[in-house]
Amino acid sequence: MTPRQVARRLAYTAFMAVVLAFFAVPMLWLASAPFDSDPGLGLRWPDWTLTNWQVTFEHPYALSSLVNSVVLCVVATAVTTVFATLAAYTLSRVRIPGRDALLYVLLLLSSVVTGTAAMVPIFVMMFQLGLTNSQYATGLVIAGGLLPAAIFILKDFVDSVPRSYEESARVFGASPTQVLLHVVLPVARPGIATILVWAFVQAWGNFLLPFLLMRDVSSQPAAVLLRTLRDEGGSANLTVIPVFSLLYAIPVVALYLFVSKRYGFRFHGGIKA
Amino acid sequence: MVDAPPARRTGRARDTAGIGVARAVTFVSPALVLIGLFLVFPALWTIYIGITDYTLTGTASVAPKIVGLGNFVEALDDALFGNALWLTLVFVLGSAVIGQNFLGFALAWLLRGARPALRRVVESLVLMSWILPSVVVAYLWIALLDRDGGTLGALIGSPGTAWLVEYPMASLVVFNTWRGTAFSMLLYSSALAAVPPSQLETARSVGASGWQTVRDVVFPHIRGHVLTNTLLISLWTANDFGPFLLTAGGPNHASETLPVFIYQQAVPSGRLGYAAAVSVLLLLVNLVVSAVYLLLLRKRS
Predict the structure, then answer these.
(1) Higher pLDDT, A272 or A110
(2) Which fold has domain B70-300?
(3) What's the pLDDT band for B300 if we cut at 50, 70, 90?
(4) Tell me, what's the pLDDT at B26?
(5) B236·A111 Cβ contact <8 A
(6) What is the pLDDT of residues B151-164, one digit of tens each?
(7) How large is the ipTM?
(8) Which of A12, A25, A94, A180 would you mutate first to test chain B, the one with the most B CBs within 10 A?
(9) How many structural domains comprise chain A?
(10) Tens of pLDDT, residues A65-114
(11) Any idea what DSSP says for residue A237?
């Protein structure tokens, strides 16, 4: 190897080491603090104990907030996936004038308006309708923000399903609903799975909308409760926070591991230049 | 269905699946209703609330008056709004346009030829930082940057620096680079797969350096991807509520980006009309950024 190549090799290794440390170090706390008998903000080899877990399970709202999160998340994910599938299929097969322009405008609107910019009207609207503190209503609001992107991505998938499949099913007398259920859905399954996982991760981690709309502590999902654990009495509740963070993060991590093992986690040409 | 056959007859050429008008409307409307209710309507209503003196409590909460452009004039005069706009710009430029873009590209470029094990580990960590819930991630960084016993202080051997208090914006920029690089990395990996290997081979055989190869061979192929990526991450970062979870805008407004400013005005201060007007201004900035992007994209083709 020439000196130049050696220098290159060294620079490459150093860069990768720095990147690995940069991304890994913040996450180590989540592995050590939940099991430490005296959890602090710093990182150290834990003095192993499971007391923190017991304290967390005894916290009056910890477990119920996870249940609230599940309800909210299931509503948002199911509504997004089902409605987006129906809409994407129809928009892919029936040509409506101005369809593509409409989809682009909605997509742009959803990436610009969701959350912060629409904070005031969404808060006022739900407040006046008396729908604050409802997991179902908050789930629907989240779904409304996710739908444009979901339809956009799914339509790409359905567009790639050959129409001849549906035509032959029609020739053999299948009804349009049967065609959708037995021909289109199985072929578009990877796309639908993508949307399902994406909507779940988005709804599970969403903080702003539940924070605005769920003012009552017994109906708050995990995202909001975890935040309030810090404000209680001014200082952080370091016995409960690490364990609860880990519990709350596990579904997303498990989903990621499942997806990356099964499908590989990358973009499949869905995003075009 | 009684009305399906005529619909199918008139639209046969365009409706191969035989969905029919009635069914098409039934399939599309649930999604459109939700989008209309929770996206389009709030967007329009923001403009209306923005021209009133609506508040959360007090007399103006019962009977808000229309004040025209008063809120907008006030915002443009408000030093705190100017501060928030400037901090948002710093946040977007520092963490999205520079941080995520460059780190994401560097990772995609350097990991192409890496050993599969190394590649898997790096990609998993980067992706994990992207998909973990934002509240959890905020705690991870609060623990990392804390003054007493924070991991960073211990690592570099100088405890006692309260990073989030002394350098709030720099902390947020580094944090958001960590948080969002995964998207750019994924997008650039799939873009790089489209660069013809023969051209990379040619570049290597004439002895081009890595930087020359990226600039003259790779960049022309992925220019569209760079634009798309930069637009998306800029919009997401400008509207990100993450800074609230780390610093809540403090200390003394030093890290109060526009989304945090809007929240502080709307809920704790209860000035809904003013907050809505600022939202409209944020929307306008977003639209200008998108328009510039569309112009650049059109110029390319």
Answers:
(1) A110
(2) MetI-like fold (1.10.3720)
(3) low
(4) 84
(5) yes
(6) 777 777 777 777 78
(7) 0.83
(8) A94
(9) 2
(10) 888 999 999 999 999 999 999 998 888 888 777 777 888 778 777 777 76
(11) -
pLDDT, position A271: 45
Residue A221, domain CATH: 1.10.3720.10
Residue B17: the pLDDT is: 60
Range of the domain at A14: 3-49
Determine the Cα–Cα distance for residues A162 and B123; give it in Å rounded to an integer: 34
> Which of A8, A107, A116, A267 would you mutate first to test chain B, the one with the most B CBs within 10 A?
A116
Residues A238 and A203 in one domain: yes
Chain A residues whose beta carbon lies within 8 Å of the beta carbon of residue B207: none
Query: What is the per-residue pLDDT for B176?
Result: 95
B51 with B277: CB under 8 angstroms?
yes
Q: Do A22 and B178 touch (CB under 8 A)?
A: yes
User: Same domain, yes or no, for A79 and A172?
Assistant: yes
Which of A15, A112, A208 is nearest residue B283 as measured by Cβ atoms?
A112
Q: Domain ranges in chain B?
A: 70-300
The confidence score (pLDDT) of residue A140 equals: 92
User: Does any domain span residue A157?
Assistant: yes
A41 and A96 together in one domain: no
Domain assignment present for residue A55? The answer is: no
Contact: A119, B275; criterion CB under 8 Å: yes
**Residue A81: inside a domain:** yes
Is residue A9 located within the same domain as residue A30? Answer: yes
pTM summary value:
0.84
Question: Is residue A29 in some structural domain?
Answer: yes
Residues in chain A: 273
